[in-house]
Design goal:
Blueprint lengths: L1 H29 L8 E3 L2 E2 L5 H12 L7 E5 L2 E5 L7 E2 L1 H12 L4 H10 L5 E3 L3 E2 L2 H15 L7 E4 L4 E4 L4 E4 L1 H13 L6 E3 L2 E4 L5 H7 L2 E6 L4 E6 L2 E7 L2 E2 L8 E4 L2 E4 L3 E2 L13 E2 L8 E8 L2 E6 L8 E3 L3 E4 H7 L8 E4 L1
Helix pairs in contact: 1-4, 2-3
């Protein structure tokens, strides 16, 4: 008998709890479209309002605040962006959805008890702005077109007389994504000062002046008209030598090449040319019969720089295409000119 009384009592308790839970569930369901107390949207208190009422309140409270234009500055220039130009408008539906989502956090029992006790959620939904991304970035592109400057690579332009080079210059580019975020941030904060600097970044050249000097640590220019060989180190003139160049009909070939052969006390590989006569095709070893003295710096199709003991030929067009130097000069030059050094014959 006692067990039966206990069972009946438990059943009654369960029924009461179920009825209470059912009531709380029904109460919570009836408030599925009501924003919880304590929630603000864009700084406006929307707690306790239905979704429709909250939309109306937000529209009336925030609508006038979206009329302020944004002023963008860069040095002595300025641009003005009106909200209408990018179709900016209040994201009221999104703010209300976010407020309702915050209101529905947790389970129905917790929500029902919270509402019945008048407890607050204390959540701030930020002001949301809808806009045309295409128009916003179109405006930014127009600003960037007036500000952006490409970086300029350092360049070298050799001539017979000089090694001309131009220094590199950094460029500048508008940071478009940062600028878009800055504009939208100002539009979302009606109380903020709607003036901002345009964010930019420095654009570095691929080849700056220091790298150009490193790339051309050594450079040779040949001035055939004035019979001068100039040695350049790190783009600066280091040495000037008097030379002989190819005679008429056997001119030293003009153009830009590189040193592709280095030899100490080289043999003379006589070209198969008519001017060589009986020596054509022969190899003359180092010695009195070898006109290529002391050192050899070859650069193109048998043409090269070498020493000579015919000092009277220096300062004239006398060779068969090579560049002649005095023996002391070529001995000084040789260790200063590594393989693959560029050489310009002008």
């Amino acid at each position: 008998m006692k067990k039966r009384v206990i069972a009946i009592s438990l059943a009654v308790v369960v029924l009461v709890l179920a009825a209470g839970a059912g009531g709380l569930y029904a109460y919570d369901s009836s408030r599925s479209n009501v924003i919880a107390q304590g929630i603000t949207a864009g700084g406006v208190d929307v707690g306790g309002l239905s979704a429709a009422r909250a939309r109306d309140v937000l529209r009336r409270s925030l609508g006038p605040k979206l009329d302020s234009s944004v002023v963008l500055l860069s040095h002595d220039r300025r641009w003005t962006l009106s909200p209408a130009s990018i179709d900016a408008r209040l994201g009221i539906d999104r703010m209300v959805r976010e407020a309702l989502a915050q209101s529905r956090q947790g389970n129905f029992l917790g929500r029902a008890v919270r509402d019945l006790r008048g407890e607050k959620v204390n959540v701030s939904v930020p002001l949301r702005i809808a806009h045309s991304r295409e128009k916003l970035y179109g405006f930014i592109a127009g600003v960037a077109k007036q500000i952006d400057k490409p970086a300029v690579d350092a360049t070298v332009e050799p001539s017979g007389l000089a090694l001309n080079w131009t220094p590199s210059h950094d460029g500048v580019a508008v940071q478009r994504r940062f600028l878009a975020a800055r504009i939208l941030r100002m539009l979302r904060d009606p109380s903020a000062r709607h003036v901002a600097l345009i964010p930019t970044r420095v654009v570095h050249p691929h080849l700056n002046t220091a790298r150009l000097a490193y790339k051309y640590q050594t450079f040779i220019t040949i001035d055939r008209a004035h019979f001068k060989l100039r040695l350049w180190k790190n783009l600066r003139l280091a040495r000037t030598y008097t030379i002989a160049v190819g005679r008429q009909g056997l001119e030293t070939p003009a153009g830009q090449y590189e040193i592709n052969d280095r030899q100490v006390n080289p043999s003379w590989h006589v070209p198969n040319s008519s001017w060589a006569g009986a020596l054509a095709g022969r190899v003359i070893p180092p010695g009195p019969d070898d006109p290529i003295k002391a050192r050899w710096l070859g650069f193109y199709n048998g043409a090269g720089i070498h020493g000579t003991d015919e000092l009277s030929s220096l300062g004239t067009a006398a060779s068969h295409g090579c560049i002649r130097m005095s023996i002391p000069d070529v001995l000084q030059l040789y260790p200063l000119v590594p393989l693959h050094t560029p050489i310009y014959v002008g």
